[in-house]
Design brief:
Shape: elongated
Strand content: under 5%
Largest sheet: none
Distance between the termini: 13 Å
């Protein structure tokens, strides 16, 4: 088995794990936030079904400087309100969201990187 096949296999495995964590995070955390009248309107605009799960996870993972920049921008309605989410989530919810977001972004990055490296002939 080539190095490229192994690398793509590991990245695909991480992507499958992140898909399972997406469902768990949506069912455990975001469902609770949707039912809460104080937080249901601050999950960001949902462009597609389930997009609010991505909004909440990205808001919980974003650094403070990025959150402040988004809050001041005209596109602020598209993202979730971190301060309100932090107030209404437990430590487990935040860890689950950060784990999901890290695996999803990381595995996507590596799949794209390995595809580009393969196109340039690095694995030949």
């Amino acid at each position: 088995m080539s190095i490229m096949s192994q690398a793509m296999g590991w990245a695909a495995l991480l992507m499958m794990i992140s898909a399972v964590l997406l469902v768990l995070f949506g069912q455990i955390t975001v469902r609770k936030l949707r039912k809460n009248p104080e937080t249901k309107d601050s999950l960001g605009i949902s462009l597609a079904s389930g997009w609010d799960i991505i909004n909440v996870a990205s808001a919980l993972c974003a650094p403070k400087c990025y959150r402040e920049r988004v809050r001041k921008s005209p596109m602020a309605a598209f993202s979730a309100d971190y301060d309100l989410l932090y107030k209404h989530t437990s430590l487990f919810d935040r860890i689950l969201g950060r784990t999901f977001w890290g695996l999803a972004v990381g595995s996507t990055f590596f799949l794209i990187l390995f595809g580009l490296l393969d196109d340039f002939g690095v694995f030949d």
